[in-house]
Write a structure and sequence with these properties.
Oligomer: single chain
Structural class: alpha/beta
Largest sheet: 8 strands, parallel
Bound molecules: pyridoxal-5'-phosphate
Distance between the termini: 21 Å
Shape: elongated
Helix content: 25-40%
CATH architecture of the largest domain: Alpha-Beta Barrel
Order of helices and strands: EHEHEHEHEHEHEHEHEHEEHEEEEHEE
Strand content: 15-25%
Strand order of the largest sheet: 2-9-8-7-6-5-4-3
Length: 383
Amino acid sequence: MLDPAAASLDDLATPAAILDRTRLDRNLARLAARMTDLGVTLRPHMKTAKSIDVARRAFPNGPGPITVSTLAEADYFAGHGSRDMTYAVGIAPHTASRAMSLRKAGVDIKVLLDTVEQAAFLAEAGRAVGVTPAAFIEIDCDGHRGGLRVDDPALLDVAAALTDGGVLLAGVLTHAGESYALHTPEALVSAAENERAVAVKAAERLRAAGHQCPVVSVGSTPTAHCAAGLDGVTEVRAGVYMFFDLVMHGVGVCSTDDIALSVLSTVIGAKPEKRWIMIDAGWMALSRDRGTSSQRVDQGYGLVCDLEGRIYPDLIVAYASQEHGTLAIRSGSSEPLPDLPVGSKVRILPNHACATASQHERYHVVAGQSAVIEAQWPRIRGW
Ligand SMILES: Cc1ncc(COP(=O)(O)O)c(C=O)c1O
């Protein structure tokens, strides 16, 4: 909710999403430098931030190449000047038509597919508005989600259906989603190498069959941060690297000091006999994501910090209902419960930044340990 009166976290109505600009900028710079060193283009995925203000910090000199996860994002970023984007979710008939209308309006939007049927209706959607569509073929590099295996005979059938239908084959795209389940440097380096090698092999198969395959697109935050080399890859997509979260901390690609997003919450009660403290952030403010439950350290619904972002040792949001969170010391820990009377404010580091950010309409922007709210950045929702 817009809270024009709040100049500082002390006055801000809770729950509210807080974005630490210092950490955001550091996270953006870290991956950008890595991609420059590895000689590939970074095409940030805006699915996490969904905010033009965040995109502008990634591209201070004007809009850069982006990835989007919804056509609402595509429309929004196009409205703010983005002209080069990949819609990285498989295309359906209705989204094909919408994407082609955007293309007609001058936006170079590339779409994603892995079947001959999708190639056919995409070609038709292009013809209906008088544009040449551009599409990536989705490659499955690790059995995580959709896409064609690199040796699937259908790969060449889909490519032929695209070119025969007058669709531009933009290239191949893969996403190493299985990397989220890893936590050792060796396993992460190996997942990144597998993602690279599979994508490059798919591109080589297409080229050997006479197709153009200009772009080889890979990416997830863990693999982007752990790839030892990216030979043959032309671009990397990553999104959650901007904010990071407890799942990424569990994977091992960030420290808790890198997590730029938190939820400001107020203490609303306590149950001393149970060693519980109640706050006004339940799953509506934090999301229901329990991504750390399958990791070595289960962070409940989030890790609790003070107003300046210092972690209370082993204090987690152990339970969440719609508008209540229950703070408790992690089981097995002998840390004391901090003294947090009703009215005290805390900040919760989220399990999954994409899910938590999506519960909020705007970010309240602070810099480092300062409680001063220097800006409010709106974000978009919907599809
Ligand atoms: C197709 C695709 N590319 C890239 C990403 C970005 O990955 P991450 O959120 O790990 O940065 C995602 C995330 O879901 C994705 O689905």
